[in-house]
Amino acid sequence: MAEIIDGKALAEDVVAKVKTETARLTETGVTPGLAVVIVGEDPASQVYVASKSRRAKECGFHSVQHSLPQETGEEELVALVEELNADPAIHGILVQLPLPKHIDEGRIIQTIDPDKDVDGFHFINVGRLGTGTLGSAFVPCTPAGAMLMLERVRGRDLSGLSAVVIGRSNIVGKPMANLLLAANATVTIAHSRTKDLPALARTADVLVAAVGRPEMIRGDWVKPGATVIDVGINRIPAPEKGEGKTRLVGDVAFAEAKENAGAITPVPGGVGPMTIAMLMANTLTSAFRTAGLEPPAF
Ligand SMILES: NC(=O)C1=CN([C@@H]2O[C@H](COP(=O)(O)OP(=O)(O)OC[C@H]3O[C@@H](n4cnc5c(N)ncnc54)[C@H](OP(=O)(O)O)[C@@H]3O)[C@@H](O)[C@H]2O)C=CC1
Ligand SMILES: Nc1nc(=O)c2c([nH]1)NC[C@@H]1CN(c3ccc(C(=O)N[C@@H](CCC(=O)O)C(=O)O)cc3)C=[N+]21
To answer: Domain Tetrahydrofolate dehydrogenase/cyclohydrolase NAD(P)-binding: where (predicted)?
Structure first.
Protein backbone atom coordinates (compact mmCIF):
# COMPACT_ATOMS: atom_id res chain seq x y z
CA MET A 1 0.00 0.00 0.00
CA ALA A 2 1.28 3.36 -1.07
CA GLU A 3 2.26 6.30 1.04
CA ILE A 4 -0.26 9.11 0.42
CA ILE A 5 1.51 12.42 -0.24
CA ASP A 6 -0.57 15.00 1.63
CA GLY A 7 -0.78 18.11 -0.56
CA LYS A 8 -2.85 19.99 1.97
CA ALA A 9 -0.27 19.57 4.73
CA LEU A 10 2.64 20.37 2.41
CA ALA A 11 0.80 23.46 1.12
CA GLU A 12 0.39 24.61 4.74
CA ASP A 13 4.17 24.28 5.23
CA VAL A 14 4.83 26.38 2.11
CA VAL A 15 2.29 29.02 3.15
CA ALA A 16 3.73 29.16 6.69
CA LYS A 17 7.15 29.93 5.21
CA VAL A 18 5.65 32.54 2.86
CA LYS A 19 4.00 34.23 5.87
CA THR A 20 7.24 34.38 7.85
CA GLU A 21 9.23 35.71 4.90
CA THR A 22 6.50 38.24 4.03
CA ALA A 23 6.69 39.63 7.55
CA ARG A 24 10.48 39.94 7.20
CA LEU A 25 10.20 41.67 3.81
CA THR A 26 7.42 44.01 4.93
CA GLU A 27 9.77 45.33 7.65
CA THR A 28 12.05 46.61 4.86
CA GLY A 29 9.11 48.57 3.40
CA VAL A 30 8.02 46.18 0.62
CA THR A 31 4.72 44.27 0.88
CA PRO A 32 4.19 41.57 -1.78
CA GLY A 33 1.25 42.47 -4.04
CA LEU A 34 -0.79 39.99 -6.10
CA ALA A 35 -3.39 40.92 -8.70
CA VAL A 36 -5.79 38.20 -9.84
CA VAL A 37 -7.85 38.91 -12.95
CA ILE A 38 -10.89 36.88 -13.92
CA VAL A 39 -13.13 37.41 -16.93
CA GLY A 40 -16.59 35.86 -16.93
CA GLU A 41 -18.67 33.95 -14.41
CA ASP A 42 -17.51 30.32 -14.73
CA PRO A 43 -18.34 28.93 -11.25
CA ALA A 44 -15.28 26.62 -10.99
CA SER A 45 -12.94 29.49 -11.92
CA GLN A 46 -14.68 31.74 -9.39
CA VAL A 47 -13.97 29.19 -6.65
CA TYR A 48 -10.26 28.94 -7.53
CA VAL A 49 -9.83 32.68 -7.81
CA ALA A 50 -11.54 33.25 -4.47
CA SER A 51 -9.19 30.79 -2.77
CA LYS A 52 -6.16 32.46 -4.37
CA SER A 53 -7.23 35.87 -3.06
CA ARG A 54 -7.99 34.41 0.38
CA ARG A 55 -4.57 32.75 0.60
CA ALA A 56 -2.85 35.97 -0.49
CA LYS A 57 -4.50 37.93 2.33
CA GLU A 58 -3.60 35.17 4.79
CA CYS A 59 0.05 35.51 3.73
CA GLY A 60 -0.01 39.23 4.52
CA PHE A 61 0.03 40.28 0.85
CA HIS A 62 -1.55 43.30 -0.72
CA SER A 63 -4.23 41.40 -2.67
CA VAL A 64 -6.44 42.80 -5.41
CA GLN A 65 -8.99 41.01 -7.53
CA HIS A 66 -10.37 42.30 -10.83
CA SER A 67 -13.59 40.51 -11.83
CA LEU A 68 -14.57 41.57 -15.33
CA PRO A 69 -17.78 40.72 -17.20
CA GLN A 70 -17.84 37.98 -19.86
CA GLU A 71 -18.22 40.57 -22.67
CA THR A 72 -14.99 42.46 -21.75
CA GLY A 73 -13.05 43.35 -24.90
CA GLU A 74 -9.47 42.28 -25.62
CA GLU A 75 -8.19 45.88 -25.72
CA GLU A 76 -9.77 46.56 -22.35
CA LEU A 77 -8.03 43.53 -20.83
CA VAL A 78 -4.70 44.50 -22.41
CA ALA A 79 -5.09 47.97 -20.88
CA LEU A 80 -5.74 46.50 -17.42
CA VAL A 81 -2.67 44.24 -17.66
CA GLU A 82 -0.54 47.23 -18.73
CA GLU A 83 -1.85 49.22 -15.79
CA LEU A 84 -0.90 46.36 -13.42
CA ASN A 85 2.53 46.08 -15.10
CA ALA A 86 3.14 49.74 -14.25
CA ASP A 87 1.81 49.53 -10.66
CA PRO A 88 4.75 49.35 -8.22
CA ALA A 89 2.50 47.85 -5.50
CA ILE A 90 1.89 44.75 -7.68
CA HIS A 91 4.58 42.05 -7.92
CA GLY A 92 2.49 39.23 -9.36
CA ILE A 93 -0.22 39.20 -12.04
CA LEU A 94 -2.41 36.14 -12.64
CA VAL A 95 -4.99 36.14 -15.41
CA GLN A 96 -7.24 33.15 -14.80
CA LEU A 97 -7.49 30.80 -17.80
CA PRO A 98 -9.38 29.93 -19.90
CA LEU A 99 -10.41 33.35 -21.19
CA PRO A 100 -13.62 33.88 -23.20
CA LYS A 101 -13.20 32.76 -26.82
CA HIS A 102 -13.29 36.29 -28.28
CA ILE A 103 -10.06 37.16 -26.41
CA ASP A 104 -6.65 36.05 -27.72
CA GLU A 105 -5.20 34.27 -24.69
CA GLY A 106 -1.66 34.27 -26.11
CA ARG A 107 -1.68 38.04 -26.59
CA ILE A 108 -2.80 38.61 -22.99
CA ILE A 109 -0.13 36.30 -21.56
CA GLN A 110 2.62 37.99 -23.62
CA THR A 111 1.41 41.41 -22.40
CA ILE A 112 2.18 40.51 -18.78
CA ASP A 113 5.58 41.85 -17.63
CA PRO A 114 7.79 38.69 -17.46
CA ASP A 115 9.06 39.89 -14.05
CA LYS A 116 5.46 39.84 -12.73
CA ASP A 117 4.43 36.65 -14.54
CA VAL A 118 3.94 34.48 -11.45
CA ASP A 119 2.17 31.82 -13.57
CA GLY A 120 5.38 31.40 -15.60
CA PHE A 121 3.48 31.35 -18.91
CA HIS A 122 5.31 34.20 -20.71
CA PHE A 123 7.77 33.19 -23.47
CA ILE A 124 10.65 34.66 -21.44
CA ASN A 125 9.91 32.42 -18.46
CA VAL A 126 9.20 29.38 -20.65
CA GLY A 127 12.59 30.03 -22.28
CA ARG A 128 14.36 30.36 -18.95
CA LEU A 129 12.90 27.05 -17.77
CA GLY A 130 13.65 25.37 -21.11
CA THR A 131 17.30 26.43 -20.98
CA GLY A 132 17.71 25.49 -17.32
CA THR A 133 18.11 29.17 -16.34
CA LEU A 134 16.04 28.47 -13.27
CA GLY A 135 17.49 31.13 -11.00
CA SER A 136 15.62 33.94 -12.75
CA ALA A 137 12.59 31.99 -14.02
CA PHE A 138 9.07 31.89 -12.73
CA VAL A 139 8.13 28.23 -12.82
CA PRO A 140 4.43 27.41 -13.46
CA CYS A 141 2.74 26.78 -10.12
CA THR A 142 1.23 23.34 -10.77
CA PRO A 143 4.44 21.61 -11.92
CA ALA A 144 6.45 23.47 -9.27
CA GLY A 145 4.07 22.15 -6.59
CA ALA A 146 4.20 18.66 -8.06
CA MET A 147 8.02 18.74 -7.87
CA LEU A 148 7.92 19.65 -4.17
CA MET A 149 5.62 16.69 -3.54
CA LEU A 150 7.96 14.40 -5.47
CA GLU A 151 10.93 15.75 -3.52
CA ARG A 152 9.36 14.48 -0.28
CA VAL A 153 9.58 10.91 -1.57
CA ARG A 154 12.51 10.86 -3.99
CA GLY A 155 14.66 13.82 -2.95
CA ARG A 156 15.81 16.62 -5.24
CA ASP A 157 18.03 14.56 -7.52
CA LEU A 158 16.22 12.04 -9.73
CA SER A 159 19.38 10.63 -11.39
CA GLY A 160 18.80 7.14 -12.71
CA LEU A 161 15.00 7.34 -12.48
CA SER A 162 12.68 7.17 -15.47
CA ALA A 163 9.76 9.59 -15.56
CA VAL A 164 6.72 9.46 -17.82
CA VAL A 165 4.53 12.55 -18.11
CA ILE A 166 1.14 11.94 -19.68
CA GLY A 167 -0.03 15.24 -21.22
CA ARG A 168 1.88 17.91 -23.17
CA SER A 169 0.07 21.16 -22.42
CA ASN A 170 2.02 24.39 -22.02
CA ILE A 171 0.70 24.91 -18.49
CA VAL A 172 1.33 21.45 -17.03
CA GLY A 173 2.83 18.66 -19.16
CA LYS A 174 5.70 20.49 -20.87
CA PRO A 175 6.95 22.50 -17.87
CA MET A 176 6.64 19.36 -15.71
CA ALA A 177 8.82 17.43 -18.16
CA ASN A 178 11.39 20.26 -18.14
CA LEU A 179 11.55 20.27 -14.33
CA LEU A 180 11.98 16.50 -14.20
CA LEU A 181 14.76 16.78 -16.77
CA ALA A 182 16.42 19.57 -14.76
CA ALA A 183 16.31 17.16 -11.78
CA ASN A 184 18.18 14.56 -13.90
CA ALA A 185 15.30 12.14 -14.53
CA THR A 186 15.12 10.37 -17.90
CA VAL A 187 11.90 11.82 -19.26
CA THR A 188 9.28 10.62 -21.74
CA ILE A 189 6.29 12.77 -22.67
CA ALA A 190 3.15 10.87 -23.71
CA HIS A 191 -0.04 12.25 -25.29
CA SER A 192 -3.12 11.28 -27.25
CA ARG A 193 -1.05 9.90 -30.15
CA THR A 194 1.15 7.70 -27.99
CA LYS A 195 1.03 3.98 -28.83
CA ASP A 196 0.47 1.48 -26.01
CA LEU A 197 0.32 4.00 -23.19
CA PRO A 198 -0.26 1.36 -20.47
CA ALA A 199 3.03 -0.39 -21.37
CA LEU A 200 4.92 2.91 -21.43
CA ALA A 201 3.42 3.97 -18.09
CA ARG A 202 4.58 0.69 -16.53
CA THR A 203 8.22 1.65 -17.23
CA ALA A 204 7.95 4.79 -15.07
CA ASP A 205 9.55 5.18 -11.65
CA VAL A 206 7.79 8.55 -11.59
CA LEU A 207 4.42 8.72 -13.32
CA VAL A 208 2.75 12.11 -13.82
CA ALA A 209 -0.84 12.25 -15.09
CA ALA A 210 -2.02 15.57 -16.58
CA VAL A 211 -4.67 14.52 -19.06
CA GLY A 212 -8.08 15.71 -17.89
CA ARG A 213 -9.77 12.30 -18.18
CA PRO A 214 -11.33 10.93 -15.02
CA GLU A 215 -9.53 7.83 -13.68
CA MET A 216 -8.01 6.96 -17.06
CA ILE A 217 -4.77 5.63 -15.55
CA ARG A 218 -5.57 2.19 -14.11
CA GLY A 219 -3.85 0.34 -11.30
CA ASP A 220 -2.08 -2.10 -13.63
CA TRP A 221 -0.42 0.82 -15.49
CA VAL A 222 1.60 1.54 -12.35
CA LYS A 223 5.02 -0.06 -11.85
CA PRO A 224 5.31 -1.53 -8.34
CA GLY A 225 6.87 1.07 -6.05
CA ALA A 226 6.43 3.96 -8.51
CA THR A 227 5.68 7.52 -7.38
CA VAL A 228 2.39 8.66 -8.92
CA ILE A 229 1.60 12.38 -9.24
CA ASP A 230 -2.02 12.97 -10.24
CA VAL A 231 -2.52 16.48 -11.60
CA GLY A 232 -6.00 15.87 -13.01
CA ILE A 233 -9.01 17.65 -11.53
CA ASN A 234 -12.25 16.21 -12.90
CA ARG A 235 -15.73 16.83 -11.57
CA ILE A 236 -17.96 13.81 -12.18
CA PRO A 237 -21.56 12.97 -11.21
CA ALA A 238 -21.92 11.35 -7.78
CA PRO A 239 -25.49 9.99 -7.63
CA GLU A 240 -24.53 8.10 -4.44
CA LYS A 241 -24.30 11.49 -2.71
CA GLY A 242 -27.74 12.48 -3.94
CA GLU A 243 -29.35 13.65 -7.13
CA GLY A 244 -27.36 16.26 -9.07
CA LYS A 245 -24.34 15.96 -6.71
CA THR A 246 -20.76 15.75 -8.02
CA ARG A 247 -17.36 14.77 -6.71
CA LEU A 248 -13.74 15.42 -7.72
CA VAL A 249 -11.52 12.68 -9.08
CA GLY A 250 -8.07 12.73 -10.64
CA ASP A 251 -6.77 11.23 -13.88
CA VAL A 252 -5.65 8.18 -11.90
CA ALA A 253 -7.92 5.42 -10.57
CA PHE A 254 -6.68 6.08 -7.04
CA ALA A 255 -8.06 2.99 -5.22
CA GLU A 256 -6.40 0.66 -7.74
CA ALA A 257 -3.20 2.61 -8.24
CA LYS A 258 -2.39 2.88 -4.55
CA GLU A 259 -2.10 -0.91 -4.37
CA ASN A 260 0.89 -0.81 -6.75
CA ALA A 261 2.42 2.60 -6.15
CA GLY A 262 5.10 3.34 -3.58
CA ALA A 263 3.64 6.81 -3.10
CA ILE A 264 0.71 8.65 -4.66
CA THR A 265 -0.96 12.06 -4.52
CA PRO A 266 -4.72 12.16 -3.80
CA VAL A 267 -7.44 14.25 -5.49
CA PRO A 268 -8.68 16.40 -3.88
CA GLY A 269 -6.00 17.37 -1.38
CA GLY A 270 -3.01 16.73 -3.65
CA VAL A 271 -1.52 18.90 -6.37
CA GLY A 272 -4.43 21.41 -6.29
CA PRO A 273 -3.64 22.98 -2.91
CA MET A 274 0.08 22.98 -3.81
CA THR A 275 -0.67 25.02 -6.94
CA ILE A 276 -2.13 27.83 -4.87
CA ALA A 277 0.71 27.65 -2.33
CA MET A 278 3.29 27.95 -5.13
CA LEU A 279 1.49 31.01 -6.50
CA MET A 280 2.10 32.63 -3.11
CA ALA A 281 5.75 31.50 -3.20
CA ASN A 282 6.24 32.94 -6.70
CA THR A 283 4.67 36.26 -5.70
CA LEU A 284 6.95 36.44 -2.66
CA THR A 285 9.95 35.68 -4.89
CA SER A 286 8.95 38.51 -7.23
CA ALA A 287 8.68 40.97 -4.34
CA PHE A 288 12.13 39.96 -2.99
CA ARG A 289 13.67 40.48 -6.44
CA THR A 290 12.04 43.91 -6.76
CA ALA A 291 13.51 44.83 -3.38
CA GLY A 292 16.94 43.73 -4.61
CA LEU A 293 17.07 40.90 -2.06
CA GLU A 294 17.81 37.20 -2.49
CA PRO A 295 14.46 35.32 -2.40
CA PRO A 296 14.11 32.35 0.00
CA ALA A 297 14.30 28.87 -1.54
CA PHE A 298 11.28 26.59 -1.48
N1 LIG B 1 -4.03 20.68 -9.91
C2 LIG B 1 -3.99 21.82 -10.55
O3 LIG B 1 -3.66 22.83 -9.98
C4 LIG B 1 -4.28 21.87 -12.01
C5 LIG B 1 -4.93 20.83 -12.57
N6 LIG B 1 -5.19 20.79 -13.90
C7 LIG B 1 -5.85 19.59 -14.42
O8 LIG B 1 -4.89 18.79 -15.09
C9 LIG B 1 -5.49 18.14 -16.20
C10 LIG B 1 -4.73 18.51 -17.44
O11 LIG B 1 -4.80 19.89 -17.67
P12 LIG B 1 -4.17 20.60 -18.96
O13 LIG B 1 -2.77 20.19 -19.12
O14 LIG B 1 -4.52 22.02 -18.86
O15 LIG B 1 -5.08 19.90 -20.11
P16 LIG B 1 -5.04 19.97 -21.70
O17 LIG B 1 -6.40 19.57 -22.14
O18 LIG B 1 -4.45 21.25 -22.15
O19 LIG B 1 -4.02 18.82 -22.09
C20 LIG B 1 -4.32 17.47 -21.94
C21 LIG B 1 -3.22 16.61 -22.48
O22 LIG B 1 -3.60 15.24 -22.32
C23 LIG B 1 -3.45 14.54 -23.53
N24 LIG B 1 -4.48 13.51 -23.68
C25 LIG B 1 -5.80 13.67 -23.82
N26 LIG B 1 -6.42 12.48 -23.94
C27 LIG B 1 -5.46 11.56 -23.88
C28 LIG B 1 -5.46 10.14 -23.96
N29 LIG B 1 -6.58 9.45 -24.12
N30 LIG B 1 -4.28 9.50 -23.87
C31 LIG B 1 -3.14 10.19 -23.70
N32 LIG B 1 -3.08 11.52 -23.61
C33 LIG B 1 -4.22 12.20 -23.71
C34 LIG B 1 -3.57 15.58 -24.63
O35 LIG B 1 -2.89 15.10 -25.76
P36 LIG B 1 -2.80 15.93 -27.16
O37 LIG B 1 -1.82 17.02 -26.89
O38 LIG B 1 -2.30 14.91 -28.13
O39 LIG B 1 -4.19 16.42 -27.44
C40 LIG B 1 -2.95 16.80 -23.96
O41 LIG B 1 -1.56 16.85 -24.21
C42 LIG B 1 -6.95 18.58 -16.17
O43 LIG B 1 -7.69 17.62 -15.45
C44 LIG B 1 -6.93 19.89 -15.43
O45 LIG B 1 -8.13 20.17 -14.79
C46 LIG B 1 -4.74 21.80 -14.72
C47 LIG B 1 -4.09 22.88 -14.21
C48 LIG B 1 -3.85 23.03 -12.80
N1 LIG C 1 -3.75 31.52 -14.99
C2 LIG C 1 -4.10 30.37 -14.42
N3 LIG C 1 -3.29 29.80 -13.50
C4 LIG C 1 -3.63 28.63 -12.90
O5 LIG C 1 -2.86 28.10 -12.07
C6 LIG C 1 -4.90 28.03 -13.22
C7 LIG C 1 -5.71 28.68 -14.17
N8 LIG C 1 -5.29 29.83 -14.75
N9 LIG C 1 -6.89 28.13 -14.51
C10 LIG C 1 -7.40 26.92 -13.90
C11 LIG C 1 -6.30 26.03 -13.39
C12 LIG C 1 -6.76 25.03 -12.35
N13 LIG C 1 -6.08 25.39 -11.12
C14 LIG C 1 -6.34 24.83 -9.87
C15 LIG C 1 -5.89 25.38 -8.70
C16 LIG C 1 -6.23 24.85 -7.46
C17 LIG C 1 -7.01 23.73 -7.36
C18 LIG C 1 -7.40 23.20 -6.02
O19 LIG C 1 -7.09 23.78 -4.99
N20 LIG C 1 -8.12 22.07 -5.94
C21 LIG C 1 -8.60 21.48 -4.70
C22 LIG C 1 -10.09 21.22 -4.74
C23 LIG C 1 -10.91 22.44 -5.01
C24 LIG C 1 -12.39 22.08 -5.18
O25 LIG C 1 -12.96 21.49 -4.24
O26 LIG C 1 -12.95 22.38 -6.25
C27 LIG C 1 -7.93 20.13 -4.49
O28 LIG C 1 -7.49 19.52 -5.48
O29 LIG C 1 -7.89 19.67 -3.35
C30 LIG C 1 -7.44 23.14 -8.53
C31 LIG C 1 -7.10 23.67 -9.77
C32 LIG C 1 -5.28 26.47 -11.37
N33 LIG C 1 -5.34 26.84 -12.64
So the answer is: 140-288
State how far the Cα of 235 lies from the Cα of 167, in Å rounded to an integer. Answer: 18
Contact between 34 and 283 (Cβ < 8 Å): yes
Whole-number Å distance between alpha carbons of 184 and 187: 9
The fold of 141-273 is Rossmann fold (3.40.50)
Q: Report the largest interatomic distance among the alpha carbons of the chain, rounded to a whole angstrom.
A: 56
Choosing from 8, 119, 191 the residue with most ligand 1 atoms within 8 A of its CB, the one to mutate for a pocket test is 191
pLDDT per position as a tens digit, 235-249: 999 999 999 999 999
pLDDT in tens, 133-163: 998 999 999 999 999 999 999 999 999 999 9
What is the domain partition of the chain in residue ranges? 28-122, 141-273
Active site annotation includes 241: no
User: Which CATH superfamily, name and number, covers 28-122?
Assistant: Leucine Dehydrogenase, chain A, domain 1 (3.40.50.10860)
Backbone angles phi, psi at 52, to 5 degrees: -65, -45
Return the amino acid letter for 233: I
CA 115 – ligand 1 centroid, Å: 27
- 96 noted as active-site residue: yes
Q: What atom in ligand 1 is closest to the CA of residue 145?
A: 3
Q: Read off the pLDDT band of 268 (50, 70, 90).
A: very high
For the entire predicted model, the pTM comes to 0.97
Q: Which residues of 196-229 are buried (b: 16+ CB within 10 A; e: fewer)?
A: ebeebbbebbbbbbbbeebbbbeeebbbeebbbb
